[in-house]
């Protein structure tokens, strides 16, 4: 997959996503070495240029399920090549609630893949574990299998982390689970980012979890019961607490345009990230499929629905679709939307080597045109390697 472009110097040019200027970027040794910029050149023939997108929640892609029973060595790279084609250069493979055996197995398989695959390791800084320490209540648990939901255990989590090669960098949990406060403190002491999600926590429980170190809300507005109390529900306290950043899924199905607008007003653009929450049916044809023993329908509009639980089973659109939807529905600039899917995400994980087009950063770069405000990816560079070209 790697080509020689990481070794020699070359130049990439395009229209700066942040300000419309003509940008020329020199790349050598996998890094951006210099950037030159000119205003008002009138070069409308060039594509836009932006930092590669960063997605903190990818459950699978193109028929590869990171939580699946049949995940095999090499699958992570197969999924990655399609993920790179969607403009994402950094992602967190996400494992969801499952049996102890399956979580250990799949963390080990992907951890070993990362240990031997240099290009992949440049793209995957670590794993996100969503569950199994979440709310067992229908609605809040979404499609996570109830039989595998349990209370937090630092010993068990440590086994998962060892199986992954010490690569778990985020856990999403419910603050109301027994022992969550101590567990969150242990995560923070060990540098694991704690996010709140699939939770019916009270305002007091949410406050306590943030006091203990939780710093992110996972896909706010989802992983929530369909019928909630209009005053006392888990959404308002997470919106109200300025210490919490939020991730949102702007795929057109998980949140309404009005929720996108209100969340942005409440949090401010700098405190939000876009995430895809794509699962293994992303990139597949519409139809009926199985997911964790449930019937799931992928509609022609890209919705993944389980009618039995009346919940969405993750998403099918890549992160770039969220970028386009967020721009269209909020009227924000391209810089704001792309930063929510790159720079802001990099900051959360202290990935200071990526997320912007500055000298010294990793040459993670995308070239694209907009079609109905959604980026149509033409080229993707990962640390200076051309990992996707449409032409
Ligand atoms: Zn979820």
Overview of this protein structure:
- The chain starts with 9 loop residues before the first strand and ends with a strand.
- The chain contains 11 helices and 21 strands.
- Strands 5-8-9-10-11-12-13-14 form an 8-stranded parallel sheet.
- The chain is an alpha/beta fold.
- Bound molecules: zinc ion.
- Zinc ion binds next to loops.
Q: What's the pLDDT, averaged over the residues? A: 95
Low-confidence stretches: 1-6
Tally of DSSP β-strands: 21
Global Rg: 20 Å
Query: Structural class, from helix and strand content?
Result: alpha/beta
Distance between the termini: 17 Å
The biggest beta sheet is recorded as:
8 strands, parallel
Query: Percent range for helical residues?
Result: 25-40%
Net shape:
globular
**What bound compounds does this protein have?**
zinc ion
Task: Please work out how many helical segments DSSP would assign.
Answer: 11
Q: How would you write the strand order of the largest sheet?
A: 5-8-9-10-11-12-13-14
Strand content: 25-35%
């Amino acid at each position: 997959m790697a080509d020689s472009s990481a070794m020699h110097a070359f130049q990439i040019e395009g229209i700066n996503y942040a300000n419309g200027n003509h940008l020329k970027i020199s790349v050598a040794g996998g890094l951006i070495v210099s950037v030159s910029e000119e205003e008002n050149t009138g070069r409308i023939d060039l594509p836009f240029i932006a930092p590669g997108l960063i997605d903190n929640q990818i459950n699978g892609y193109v028929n590869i399920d990171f939580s699946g029973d049949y995940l095999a060595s090499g699958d992570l790279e197969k999924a990655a090549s399609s993920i790179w084609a969607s403009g994402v250069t950094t992602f967190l493979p996400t494992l969801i609630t499952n049996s102890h055996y399956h979580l250990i197995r799949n963390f080990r398989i992907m951890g070993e893949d990362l240990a031997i695959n240099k290009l992949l390791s440049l793209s995957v800084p670590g794993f996100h574990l969503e569950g199994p320490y979440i709310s067992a209540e229908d609605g809040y648990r979404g499609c996570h299998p109830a039989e595998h939901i349990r209370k937090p255990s630092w010993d068990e989590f440590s086994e998962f982390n060892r199986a992954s090669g010490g690569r778990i960098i985020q856990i999403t949990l419910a603050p109301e689970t027994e022992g969550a406060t101590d567990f969150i403190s242990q995560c923070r002491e060990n540098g694991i980012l704690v996010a709140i999600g699939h939770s019916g926590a009270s305002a007091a429980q949410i406050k306590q979890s943030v006091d203990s170190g939780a710093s992110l809300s996972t896909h706010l507005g989802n992983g929530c019961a369909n019928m909630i109390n209009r005053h006392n529900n888990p959404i308002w306290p997470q919106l109200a607490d300025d210490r919490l950043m939020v991730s949102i899924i702007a795929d057109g199905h998980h949140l309404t345009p009005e929720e996108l607008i209100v969340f942005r007003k409440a949090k401010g653009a700098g405190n939000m990230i876009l995430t895809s929450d794509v699962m293994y049916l992303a990139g597949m044809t519409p139809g009926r499929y199985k997911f964790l023993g449930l019937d799931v329908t992928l509609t022609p509009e890209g919705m993944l629905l389980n009618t039995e639980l009346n919940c969405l089973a993750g998403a099918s659109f890549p992160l770039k679709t969220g970028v386009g939807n967020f721009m269209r529905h909020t009227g924000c600039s391209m810089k704001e939307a792309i930063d929510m899917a790159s720079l802001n995400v990099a900051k959360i994980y202290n990935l200071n080597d990526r997320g912007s087009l500055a000298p010294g950063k990793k040459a993670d770069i995308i070239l694209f045109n907009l079609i109905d405000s959604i980026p149509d990816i033409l080229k993707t560079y990962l640390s200076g390697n051309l990992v996707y070209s449409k032409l």
